User: Fold these one by one.
Assistant:
Number 1:
Amino acid sequence: MTTLPSAWRYPRVLAHRGGGVLAPENTLAGLKEGLRRGYRAIEYDIMLARDGVPVVMHDPYLGRTVAGSGNVYDYDAAELALLDAGGWFARAYEGEPVPLFVEFAGFCKAHAVWMNMEIKPAPEYDIETGGTVARIAAALFADEIAAGDMAAVPLLSSFSMLALESAREVAPQVPRACLMSELPPDWERRAQSVEAVAIHTNHKHLTPALAQEVRAAGYGLFCYTVNDPARARELLSWGVEAFCTDRIDLIGPDFIGR
Ligand code: G3P
Ligand code: MG
């Protein structure tokens, strides 16, 4: 286990896409499933609808998790909110709506659920999406930011450097993390360019040496999406500080300890 100082000030086990795979992803029902199991920290995805209103959504198109066809940006948020985001998962969830980001984030805050907000821009909407999510997050957590209670403030992450740059311009006070499936040789330059505090990476491509490199450079190190407890323990032994999981039934919120 690494003895480097930790740059990660947040919960260490997060439910992926709101509530893992026990309920439909990126829905309030999923979030509530996690709450029932003691989860108070989540990762979820945010995208803009046609009218620029952000919704909680992973895919840029309908059809997999939301009944319908076409792209997310073909619909206004109010229209998306009327579509079924739960029936694909099980009949019991039929009619579960596509959450509006503002309402979803407000619910999380009210229930003390810490948020890793993944900015998931639809193609060519990077700048608008990054800026919108950052502006809303900053407004929602204005009091915590003013009080210096940064552990409560969400962490914005994205695969899109443009989105992260936009988020930094709009609300530099909301921390950012670079999402990179596989760390490129210039990972640190990229992180510096958006003043990121953490690196979020696919555990499948991580090595002990890379984990050490990230930690030694002073960044938080988070992995997605870790569903096997033995693998989680291995990653922790490499110095990984936090991760998200789909299997909130196999890996509890206290898996690492607080
Ligand atoms: O934020 C980590 C992870 O969610 C990134 O991949 O496709 O599940 O959003 P994806
Ligand atoms: Mg995600």
Note: Residues 43, 45, 118 surround magnesium ion (ligand 2) (CB under 6 Å).
Number 2:
Amino acid sequence: MSLKAQINDNRLPKHIAIIMDGNGRWAKKQGMARAFGHENGAKAVRQVVEGCAELGVENLTLYAFSTENWNRPKLEVQTLMRLLISSLKKEIKTLQDNHIKLCTIGNLSTLPSKVHKELVDVMEKTKLNTRMTLTIALSYGSREELVSVIKEISIKVKNNIISPENIDESIINEHLYTRNLPDVDLLVRTSGEQRISNFLLWQIAYAELYFTNTLWPDFSKEDLYYAIIEYQKRERRFGKTSEQIS
Ligand code: IPE
Ligand code: IPE
Ligand code: MG
């Protein structure tokens, strides 16, 4: 039986989030500059986007650039921004052909204006697509997101729009960048690192975590299938007992 055939279509994760890590090490292994890794990482993005759309996964969120990644050497940041623009231009057809809507989360105001403009353009062009939502986390940091949520809610409290005793989880959800997305079901991180690196801290409260040693540029549709097959073997108890679940 093929890997893909082992996936149960009725128990697909509704939301997969991926920390795409290992581009630099992938390039170094072949004696190349880090930029070469990032270029090849963009190819892996196409594989997972297509793979998820074909399977019927409704939401895919990719961590492309963290708030902390601004501290990398200036040249690397520039390369990443340049690659982002060229990928967006190149991938618009894949998005349209597969009926995928592009969204972003993160502090977009910190991005170079060219990147910002290209993003807004692709989001506008794909906004009516309904097969899958592809969210790119750009200049994203979960702590920064939570700070912005607290600020927004505080202002509403001050202006008597929300009363403090009514603040609950759903109000917090409504103020997150991810307000239109369900909680993450499956979080994947490549490259062997087993940490979250400031990604979706609130939203992964009950996500299944999947770590693989594969470096991001090598990540293929088969790797995606392995992750989903593993996810489907897990028993998600959400605090209950095993007997209550079955
Ligand atoms: C992931 O690969 C891409 C970004 C964080 C932008 P890295 O660039 O972190 O690659 P490694 O971890 O150094 O191998
Ligand atoms: C996390 O990768 C951010 C992205 C994949 C965009 P990093 O490579 O920046 O994470 P750390 O610094 O190793 O935790
Ligand atoms: Mg890394």
Note: The chain is about 45% helix and 15% strand.
